Design the sequence.
């Protein structure tokens, strides 16, 4: 199979892992008038992409390499390290819910007697949290897609989650959101070159405003999204 086909499938906005349920904190940012137009949306989306680039993206690459070599302990290490890295409960909930969904879908694609099947079993037995970027690493390895493409797909997914949510809570158009996605796509290769040599211990992200917004959402009154 041409690997570009499953790459397109896994990167599709309609891929059934529940991304439409989350806004990556944008809902609260919009409610507090921090994001209110195309310019502020682009700033917010870039911040979300940068936050993920050197944390979630590193975990995804680590899990991918573990899946290729059959080193299951590496996958478990990436999973637990990423969950510990997340400061707010809503981010942890988002990663685990989407990760389990992808694992369940992966079992339907490749069968239970696979690495994905083993990982899903451990998620159900609460032996590992089941973070989404780790599931992406396993899935892309199983589908024969390269790690650069994995990283690009992951970063696209983060940005697309934000701009898709924006169409429901910010005064922007499809033209605005597509322009933002196109601009951020041009930055992905540079981020990959930095992230590709990073270890789990080197994961970092400093966007405290997003963690504050997530904590506000937990007690907030507006509920278009789960976070």
Sequence:
């Amino acid at each position: 199979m041409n690997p570009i086909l499953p790459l397109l499938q896994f990167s599709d906005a309609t891929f059934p892992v529940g991304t439409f349920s989350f806004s990556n904190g944008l809902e609260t940012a919009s409610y507090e008038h921090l994001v209110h137009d195309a310019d502020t949306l682009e700033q917010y989306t870039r911040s979300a992409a940068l936050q993920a680039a050197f944390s979630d993206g590193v975990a995804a690459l680590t899990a991918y390499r573990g899946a290729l070599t059959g080193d299951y302990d590496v996958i478990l290490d990436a999973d637990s390290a990423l969950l510990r890295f997340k400061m707010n409960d809503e981010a942890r909930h988002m990663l685990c819910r989407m990760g389990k969904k992808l694992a369940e879908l992966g079992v339907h694609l490749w069968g239970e007697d696979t690495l994905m099947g083993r990982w899903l079993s451990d998620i159900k037995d609460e032996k590992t949290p089941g973070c989404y970027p780790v599931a992406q690493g396993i899935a892309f390895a199983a589908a024969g897609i390269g790690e650069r493409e994995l990283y690009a797909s992951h970063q696209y997914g983060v940005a697309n989650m934000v701009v898709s949510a924006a169409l429901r809570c910010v005064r922007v158009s499809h033209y605005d959101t597509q322009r933002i996605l196109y601009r951020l796509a041009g930055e992905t290769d540079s981020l990959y070159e930095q992230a590709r040599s990073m270890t789990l211990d080197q994961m970092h992200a400093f966007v405290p405003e997003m963690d504050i917004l997530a904590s506000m959402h937990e007690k907030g009154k507006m509920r278009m999204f789960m976070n």
About this structure: The first helix runs from residue 4 to 11. The mean pLDDT is 91. Residues 67 and 115 are 7 Å apart (CA to CA). DSSP finds twelve helices and no strands in the chain.
